[in-house]
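TA notes, week 10

Several of you asked for a full example with nothing omitted. So below is the full record: structure tokens for the whole chain, then the designed sequence directly under it. When grading your own attempts, check the secondary structure regions first.
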């Protein structure tokens, strides 16, 4: 009964407090509230031209391998991702090139995915006609629309465009010049040099990547990686920045995500202001968008303006095979603080970030433009690092256990001696 009375009193108190204070403030109106984050949007563009009948991937036709990859990707698609599917060369069976080069359709609109519908649409595809890659890219960009975050097109094809104009490289440059925040990643299903050059050109123009897929597993894994990348990076579109050859004239970076391109075996410099009591956290990823020799790596370092190395980054261990990453942390408390300004506020010191790579191109690999680099910079309040392993209050417990062990040993020894003496007397 007492507990019930107390609960009633607490409830009445809460009701009275609510009445006095009033109802809680509502969310800010649309003019002041931040707009909700846009969902990641990806469109897969699949070549269904006649050459996709070739049976040279694990003994299977290229189209069947692509269909299997699509099914597995759709099943694993994150719920928040909006996906569309567009095809080219899928319907026109005639010989009229002019008509065949208009053959591109969106079979799944960009939006929340109905997995059953998407897989059924892909399953009915049969290799048919021409290869209007340029027109399909332009149409896919319209499918994705515009917005505040990046959109991604994943183009899967086994051949070069047979319908230019429009030339697909020119379309990619056109889209990049429009500032539509569109990235095109390309996947080649045939070991053809002309196809490789064209797909490299398309990817390079938009900051995307090119990969040659020679097996079903490679194709499935790569599409999943690209869809995951859209999910991971859609909330912050990287700012384009150009690193320099030295710290003195390097661009000054605030916290954010940046994109750049780095040539083979190059060093690119950036500057970040860090105040006492702050910690710099930075990471870099370099996309493997072309064949490179083995035994390569990426190094991220923080140095003082005079060249002294402050900290050297370590492998970030992202687990992805399409990028090589490294990251570092450095606190301004790790060095003596500069003299305070007359206002009493300690000035920020400049830290130089250096991105280096040891990549070497394979014979015949195009070396320009440089490889895509994504640099993330953050400056936060420094977190004190422990001086070393310390038991803290565990020392008292350790001492108590030691004393207990000594007492137990003494008692056991006395009891043993008494028992032996008694046994001898008997």
């Amino acid at each position: 009964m007492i507990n019930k009375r107390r609960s009633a009193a607490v409830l009445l108190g809460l009701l009275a407090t609510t009445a006095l204070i009033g109802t809680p403030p509502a969310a800010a109106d649309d003019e002041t509230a931040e707009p909700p984050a846009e969902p990641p949007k990806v469109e897969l563009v699949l070549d269904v031209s006649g050459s996709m009948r070739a049976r040279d991937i694990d003994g299977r036709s290229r189209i069947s391998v692509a269909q299997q990859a699509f099914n597995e990707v759709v099943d694993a698609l994150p719920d928040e991702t909006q996906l569309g599917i567009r095809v080219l060369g899928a319907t026109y069976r005639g010989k009229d090139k002019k008509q065949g080069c208009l053959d591109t359709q969106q079979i799944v609109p960009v939006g929340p995915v109905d997995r059953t519908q998407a897989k059924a649409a892909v399953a009915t595809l049969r290799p048919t006609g021409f290869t209007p890659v340029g027109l399909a890219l332009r149409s896919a960009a319209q499918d994705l629309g515009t917005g505040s975050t990046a959109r991604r097109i994943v183009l899967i094809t086994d051949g070069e465009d047979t319908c230019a104009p429009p030339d697909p490289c020119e379309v990619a440059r056109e889209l990049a010049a429009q500032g539509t925040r569109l990235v095109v990643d390309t996947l080649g299903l045939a070991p053809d040099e002309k196809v490789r050059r064209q797909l490299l050109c398309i990817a390079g123009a938009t900051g995307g990547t090119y990969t040659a897929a020679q097996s079903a597993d490679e194709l499935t894994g790569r599409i999943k990686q690209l869809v995951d990348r859209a999910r991971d990076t859609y909330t912050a579109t990287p700012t384009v920045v150009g690193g320099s050859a030295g710290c003195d004239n390097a661009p000054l970076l605030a916290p954010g995500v940046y994109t750049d391109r780095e040539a083979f075996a190059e060093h690119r410099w950036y500057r970040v202001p860090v105040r006492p009591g702050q910690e710099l956290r930075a990471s870099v990823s370099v996309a493997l968008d072309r064949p490179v020799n083995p035994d390569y790596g990426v190094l991220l370092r923080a140095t003082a303006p005079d060249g002294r190395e402050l900290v050297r980054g370590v492998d970030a261990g992202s687990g992805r095979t399409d990028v090589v990453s490294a990251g570092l942390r450095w606190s301004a408390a790790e060095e003596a603080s500069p003299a305070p300004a007359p206002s009493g506020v300690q000035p920020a010191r400049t830290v130089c970030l250096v991105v280096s790579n040891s990549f070497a191109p394979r014979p015949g690999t195009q070396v320009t433009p440089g490889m895509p680099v994504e640099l993330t910079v953050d400056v936060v309040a420094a977190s004190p690092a422990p001086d070393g392993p310390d038991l803290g209050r565990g020392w008292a417990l350790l001492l108590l256990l030691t004393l207990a062990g000594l007492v137990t040993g003494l008692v056991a020894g006395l009891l043993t001696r008494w028992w032996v003496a008694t046994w001898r007397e008997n």
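Residues 92 and 99 are 8 Å apart (CA to CA). Use that as a sanity check on your answer.
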